Amino acid sequence: MSKRKSSTAVRTVAALMTVIIILGSGWWFRDDLKEMLNLTEKPEDALAELLNDPFADKDITLTVQTMLDLNFDPFKKPFIIRHPSVTINLLGLEMTTLYEPDKFKAYMEKSDQTIDLYMLPLKQFTILAAEGKLKGLDALFKKHDIDLDSYYPPLVDLIRLAGDGELYGFTAGYSSTALFVNRKLFEEHGIPLPEEGDSLDEILDTAARFKGTGVYGMATGSGFTNRGLSQFTAFIGQSNGLKTLTLEKNRLTASLNSKSWKEVWQQVADGYKDGWLGESPPINWNAGSVTHNQIFAQELFANGKTAMTIGDGAYYRDLSLYESREGGTSLDWITIPYEIDPAATNQSNYLGTGFVYAINAKSQNAEAAWELLRFIVGEEMAVKNDRITDNQPFDASLAANPSSMKSLPEEKWRGFYGMKADPAHVLSEIQVVSDKYYGIARDEFFKLSKEQLNAVIDGSKTIDDALSDLQAKLDEYLLNYGERGAG
Amino acid sequence: MNRYRRPLAMLLSFLMLAVMAAGCTSNTEEAADEKVLRIAVDSENYYNYKYADYIEAAFPALKVELVEMNPEPGTYLSVAEYTEKIKKEKPDLILTNDFQYRSLATEGLLLDLSTLMTGSGMKEDDFYTGMTELMKRNADGKLYGLSSIFEPTVLFYNESLFKEYGVDPPTGGMSLEEVYELGSRFVSAGGGKDGVLGVHQAYLNMPLDVLDKFGSAEGIRFVNYATGQMTMETPLWRHLIEKVVQLYQFGTLSMVEVKGKVVDGVTYFDENTSTLLDLYSKGEAAMTVAYYGAYPPQLDNGDIVGYVAPPVSSSDRQRSAHMYVFTAMAIGAEAENSEMAWNVMRFLTSDHMVKVRTKLGTNEGVSTNKSYLNVSTDPVMKQLFEINPIIKPSDAKSIINEMKFMESFRELMNTEVAAAVKGERSIDELIATLQKEGQSLLEVNKKPE
User: Fold this and answer.
1) Do A231 and A120 share a structural domain?
2) Three-state secondary structure of chain B
3) Which of B7, B54, B122 has the CB atom closest to A13's CB atom?
4) Cα separation of A240 and A350, whole Å?
5) Is B38 left (phi over 0), alpha (psi -120 to 50) or beta?
6) What is the pLDDT of residues B244-275, one digit of tens each?
7) In this model, does residue A397 exceed pLDDT 70?
8) Which is deepest, A114, A448, B74, B131, by most CB within 10 Å?
9) β-strands A277-278, A218-219: how paired?
10) Which conformational region is residue B306 in: left (phi greater than 0), alpha (psi within -120 to 50 degrees), or beta?
11) What Å distances lie between residue A186 and A190, A218, B375, CA to CA?
12) CA A450 to CA A439: how far, in whole Å?
């Protein structure tokens, strides 16, 4: 009796299940059904949505100011692909026009071209912002829900400060300098790694522990920035707040003859003599073009000859490119941030923008210019440019938004986003260091400084005498140098 | 109550199973966008140069995995090796060239696109017929691939010179022979005296290249590679050869050869030589056939550039030996992600991409999508869409090592025709020699059994 009842029950269940499954499948697989019955939405609509082109049927022409000999295609082509109804005309300026404010001003006064989007060095950006020539972007960022918090805050602060509190432009790139550490060499010689936020003194003390190990603890330069001993000395001193040349009331003065500078020179000279500070091999810039391969064939850090070096964003890219070309190396390296003195006189080495993109306040195509600007500084382009390839991007080496640094592990680039430079300092510095008047004098300073330090190294002079002589020679040079703007 | 507890429990567990099963399946459906797309392409560099920007713009979240077919520059797989690799790798999307495509289609390695096209509201008629026709040239006559671009040529002429000599310029729809005749008229009208040729093809002005093209235009070939036999003793060949000899003698064509540097079997031309070779660009040839957009509206010397539809076949004026489709996109028959592969193909052939290509410049070929005719303001473009490539006879298995044979045959042909031009051979003697010695070369260059 019960057996009969069970089989009836099973049959009922089976019947019910069949019904449910059939109905259920119809619902679960409704998309397939739709496709089978050709009920999918028309593909052209889907593609249009994909690209979300607000300018789809409008014919717009944008004039973008760039720099001559600079390939803007990496931005232009992807933008046109997304907005084919927009025509982009490039107005390429000579490098000197772009970087010398007087020349820039003269050019703009003569030109009858209305520029929609500018591509500016920070200094020129500051000037145009102050002149009220640029469109404020804060409202636009807000309107389009762009989260500025994810961008590197000191960088955003810098641009805001350059616009006296308002964002008049934005950048895709970030430049900085950090400490490169070869973990394997530290491990091999049983020396503890430097810590984040160590001072340069502490770092040089750590480097000194490599004395006698057969490898350097520190190198004076890195990659294409092959500082020699004397330039390294200047770099360390400046990072510690010491001054080299100071511009005041259109005249330059030198301040090398001090106890603090003596300490730096002592440390560097001793380091070199004791064999833990390695001087980067010189590069012959006059031999025509120098290739990446040529530099890295003999580069100290890349070849495991030094446990540490100080390098910038460009070096980070170059080193990574070298590793990828070699099919990976046995180098185990990371970057670490170190302490910069709040009064450091080279803070622009630690906090810099790429080109600042800004919209002309008088542009008749502000909407399209804004779309181009946000595209250039946006995530898609940043992630693409972050990839280490043979075609390096033309702008600053690191991303303005660290979340776009996806191609390499964070420990390799973290150091750059921990250097604490002061945006206000950076702004006042760039007024001076990018100036030709300053540049010529600085070159002379490097030349004289090298002579004096060499004399110390070969034992023919004491540091006291060397610094005293250096000061005297600089004083004489600067006396005859003339005033800034005196022609 | 107890009576129903067991069946109820069974029902519930069946239901749960059904839900899980259905859930698993629908998850696979939804994850189509997240699935990797495996793309077969020559190399990573080529992908980045030709396709990456477009695919990344349309599908920013898509993960692409490249199957590099020819990653080493300068080294290429043979057609058979390439086909084998595709068979092994089973890529989703295949970005390749037209002759490789044909082999893949023949081997049954590609997905028939007709259902996908219908499902997407696309019709073959939306595209340049020459392209879809070529794509269907396989055993089944099915559409296994598409190309988003084709490479049309046009007949460029020097408008200023034609005006100067009072000769009516060319019109579209002329056969190659008619173009040559016009060239000769140009020469006799004064061009010859001033050292201007009638017709000149940069790099391809020697007898072998001229006759190769002339033959193609009229649907005949030097050799049947399947049987290993010379096929030049025909009335049509005699006509073409006689014509060409006369054209060289008359000065319509020139046999001046500028030699490039040969390194490892590859001929290189430096910038100077290149300029020497392109006589049309120097104003020293009245006409030339070149890719659409090859010359700007004015030559360096100020002469005005005109152009018309390229030469067509005299037996079929809707066909030309000067229209090309070099690329092909297809979906692997065993693709795991055919859906995404089709999305990419749809995008690359879309109206949007037509606009993009127009904006970025035509050095990438002309869009096959007919909506381009709404974008282009060039009246010649409409004519180009109506001229299809010549259908070449199906390539049955060749028993000849064609490259090696051609090297020697080229020398033979160029030397013999040069002699005939000088009057040292009659046309009959010339053809007899080509046939006889060409046959010997074929014997010597047979593929090993």
Assistant:
1) no
2) CHHHHHHHHHHHHHHHHHHHHHHHHHHHHHHHHCCCEEEEECCHHHHHHHHHHHHHHHCCCCCEEEEECCCCCCCCCCHHHHHHHHHHHCCCEEEEEHHHHHHHHHCCCECCCHHHHHHCCCCHHHECHHHHHHHCCCCCCCCCEECCEEEEEEEEEEHHHHHHCCCCCCCCCCEHHHHHHHHHHHHHHHHCCCCCEEECCCCCCCHHHHHHHHHHHCCCCCEECCCCEECCCCHHHHHHHHHHHHHHHHCCCCCCCCCCEEECCEEECCHHHHHHHCCHHHCCEEEEEEECCCCCCECCCCCEEEEECCCECCCCCCEECCEECCEEEEEECCCCCHHHHHHHHHHHCCHHHHHHHHHHCHHHCEECECCHHHHCCCHHHHHHHCCEECCCCCCCCCCECHHHHHHHHHHHHHHHHHHHHCCCCCHHHHHHHHHHHHHHHHHHCECCC
3) B7
4) 13
5) beta
6) 999 999 999 999 887 777 777 677 777 777 76
7) yes
8) B131
9) parallel
10) beta
11) 6, 12, 64
12) 16
ipTM given for this complex: 0.78
Measured CA to CA, the distance from residue A246 to residue A254 in angstroms comes to: 6
Q: State pLDDT tens for residues A407-431.
A: 999 999 999 999 999 999 999 999 8
A2 located within any domain: no
Q: Which residues of A touch B64 (CB under 8 A)?
A: none
- Cβ atoms < 10 Å from Cβ of A475: 14
Could you tell me the CATH number of the domain that includes residue A164? 3.40.190.10
Question: A80, B359: Cβ pair inside 8 Å?
Answer: yes
- The pTM of this model reads 0.81
Please state the three-class secondary structure of B101-141 as a single string: HHHHHHCCCECCCHHHHHHCCCCHHHECHHHHHHHCCCCCC
Out of B4, B58, B118, the one facing A50 most closely (by C-beta) is B58
Residues of A in contact with B11 (CB under 8 A): 13, 16-17
Interface check for A246 against chain B (CB to CB < 8 A): the answer is no
Residue numbers of the domain that contains A19 = 15-44
Query: What would the mean pLDDT of B97-116 be, rounded to a whole number?
Result: 94
Give the distance from residue B346's alpha carbon to the nearest chain A alpha carbon, in angstroms: 8
CATH number assigned to the domain covering B153-321+394-444: 3.40.190.10
CATH number for the segment(s) B35-147+325-349: 3.40.190.10
- What is the strand order of the sheet B93-97 is part of? B64-68, B37-41, B93-97, B327-331, B145-146
Same domain, A243 and A344: yes
- % of residues, chain B, pLDDT over 70: 90
CA B80 to chain A, closest CA, distance in angstroms equals 31
